[in-house]
């Protein structure tokens, strides 16, 4: 089922969202100081490209640097990508087939806004004892 949902997702919005993340990642990698943000954008772009069957868990070693990075990320790119997710969800929700995709888009917004301190893993094998933050089945 994940394969079918991922293909539908890719065609009806996932590709455009992923391209948005990749463009932001390229722009953020131009300056040396924003390279960690660019890497986060690429990681989120890959997740936005193929989200079903994967989950987001908290990193056990994340601390206050992740909090600072998340605040900076939110201002630089998180808010704008969240707006992109809402707009895509609105368009997807117009059709009955698109409603699950729209819900998945809305569920991705917290991870989009605050990606630092999170890790994207397979939904089949989350780490033992990990707090599952987001799961797309």
UniProtKB/TrEMBL annotation:
Record carries keyword Nucleotide-binding: no
GO CC terms in record: plasma membrane
Transmembrane domains' residue ranges: 6-24, 31-52, 72-99
Domain spans labelled Inner membrane component: 4-54, 68-118
Keyword check for Transmembrane: yes
Organism: Tomitella fengzijianii
Protein known as: YccF domain-containing protein
Classification via NCBIfam families: PRK11770.1-2
Keyword entries, A-Z: Membrane, Transmembrane, Transmembrane helix
């Amino acid at each position: 089922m994940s394969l079918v949902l991922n293909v539908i997702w890719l065609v009806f919005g996932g590709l455009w969202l992923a391209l948005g993340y990749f463009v932001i990642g390229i722009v953020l990698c131009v300056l040396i100081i924003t390279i960690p943000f660019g890497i986060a954008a690429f990681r989120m772009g890959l997740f936005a490209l193929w989200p079903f069957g994967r989950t987001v868990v908290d990193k056990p070693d994340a601390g206050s640097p992740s909090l600072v990075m998340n605040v900076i990320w939110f201002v630089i790119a998180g808010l704008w990508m969240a707006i992109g997710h809402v707009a895509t969800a609105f368009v997807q929700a117009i059709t009955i087939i698109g409603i699950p995709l729209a819900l998945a888009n809305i569920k991705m917004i917290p991870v989009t806004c605050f990606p630092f301190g999170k890790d994207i893993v397979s939904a089949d094998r989350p780490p033992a004892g990990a707090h599952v933050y987001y799961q797309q089945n």
